[in-house]
Amino acid sequence: MDWVTSHVWRKTTASVLDDSGLTARLIADQLGHSRVSMTQDVYLGRGAPDPRVVAALELIDPLGALQSEDVTVYFPNDGEGN
Fold first, then answer.
1. In Å, what is the CA distance from 30 to each residue of 7, 25, 34, 44, 75?
2. Is the pLDDT of residue 16 over 80?
3. Which of 33, 35, 61, 70 is geometrically suited to a Cys-Cys bond with 66, CB 3.0 to 4.6 A?
């Protein structure tokens, strides 16, 4: 389990506590952060996707093909190598 770094562990802890309904202040205290903004920006910055965003993105890829490992997606070149 080499992928379990201290950051991954702290992020997991913060996510579990957040999902349990604890406040950002309590989570920050547990992680040893004096500023709640540090906890929110680094460890809680990505909430669950808004269902409206998910629905809009599914219009682009209704079958989920872009999520498959068997599919290569090619994007048009803008003429500048991008």
1. 14, 9, 10, 13, 44
2. yes
3. 61
Are residues 14 and 31 in contact, defined by beta-carbon separation less than 8 angstroms? yes
Report how far residue 6's alpha carbon sits from residue 23's, in angstroms, rounded to the nearest whole number. Answer: 22
11 contacts 43 by C-beta, under 8 angstroms = yes
Q: Indicate if the pLDDT at residue 14 is higher than 80.
A: yes
Write the single-letter amino acid at 38: M
Among 1, 2, 3, 10, smallest CA distance to 44 is for 10
Tokens representing 58 are 């599914």
Q: Are 19 and 3 in contact (CB under 8 A)?
A: no
